[in-house]
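My current task is to audit a protein record that another person submitted. What it holds is a sequence and that sequence's fold in token form. Thanks in advance; the entry in question is below.
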Amino acid sequence: MGIFNLGKKENKKAIRFSSKQDNENIQAEDCCGEIISGICCVKVLGSGCKSCHALYENAKQAVATAGIVIDVEYITDFNKIAEYGVMSMPALVINNKVVSAGKVLKANEILPYLQK
């Protein structure tokens, strides 16, 4: 029995997926650092596909249009993406809150999220 580890309990590490409510409760100080114009971080979650790159470029354009001097982070690590509970990509995260998932927003559609 010891060969196949039968009868032994396994210590499985649970992966916690954040819900929408959890994302709303995350405070800006848990994000990336310095808050500029109410925004501490802008992230694009994606697998590296054409749509993900398009959202990344649109997010950079929207940040520049809003006059915010902050870097847009592009995350392709699936473990980090899973922490946000995103099931479809690309996704846009602002201040550690998922604001869009599964579609490519244009720069003018991202601006209202940056001005809140």
